[in-house]
Amino acid sequence: MKQTLEQEYNQAKRKSAKPMLWVSMISMTMMFAGLTSAYVVSRKRADWVSFDLPDAFYISTSLIILSSITFMLSKYFIKKDNRKLTTLNLILTLLLGVGFVFYQFEGFSELINAGLVFAGEQSTVKSSFIYGITLAHIAHVAAGLIVLLIVIYNHFSKKYVSSDYLGLELGAIFWHFVDILWIYLFLFFYFIR
Predict the structure, then answer these.
(1) Is there a domain that residue 44 lies in?
(2) Rounded CA gap, 99 and 105, in Å?
(3) Rounded distance between C-alpha atoms, residue 118 and residue 111, angstroms
(4) What is the mean pLDDT of each run of 10 residues along the chain (193 residues)?
(5) CB atoms within 10 A of CB 58
(6) Which domain holds residue 150?
(7) Cβ-Cβ contacts under 8 Å for 77 (sequence gap 6 or more)
């Protein structure tokens, strides 16, 4: 039986989707490796000021870890064709992701209240790095939230079933990447003072 052009296109798209995602995640990893390397080098400066991470960053870290768990559960339940629990876990992932962003900005408020600002005369090299790197990560989380909204929309449109959930799987891979990236950054800031 001969495949139609549309079937061939869909098959090629499926084969290329994951490798393209992995390539983009590798390039994002290289960007953050460069930023954290610059942070390490800058620690040698005479004007380097050491300070503790805001408490809100601990909460946001917990939230993003929980969001990865709920995204994993949504993938598990779609494989079982349990749409109700898939929906519940996707919505929980979205709420936890929004909570993560909220607590990141709460962390910025804590830094500002401690007199540690992003730029200007009162800024320190370390605070500028923390703001810059964290804001770059939040931009990736925002992209992840957009992807998550598309996954939720497609789920409500009944696009995913146990035999075909590529979009949900790709969204989960990206979300877990953003999660792992934050854990790396959090531990990096915690231990490299």
Answers:
(1) no
(2) 10
(3) 9
(4) 67 79 92 91 84 93 98 97 97 98 95 86 84 92 95 96 92 95 93 86
(5) 14
(6) 55-191
(7) 83, 85, 86, 89
For residue 8, being part of any structural domain is answered with no
> What does the block give as tokens for 7?
């079937």
Q: Which residues contact 3 (CB under 8 A, 6 or more apart)?
A: 11
Closest CA to 130 of 153, 112, 156: 112
What's the confidence (pLDDT) of residue 13?
A: 73
CATH (domain of 177):
1.20.120.80
Distance CA(146)–CA(153), nearest Å, equals: 11
C-alpha distances (whole Å) from 118 to each of 1, 56, 133, 134 are 62, 17, 11, 11
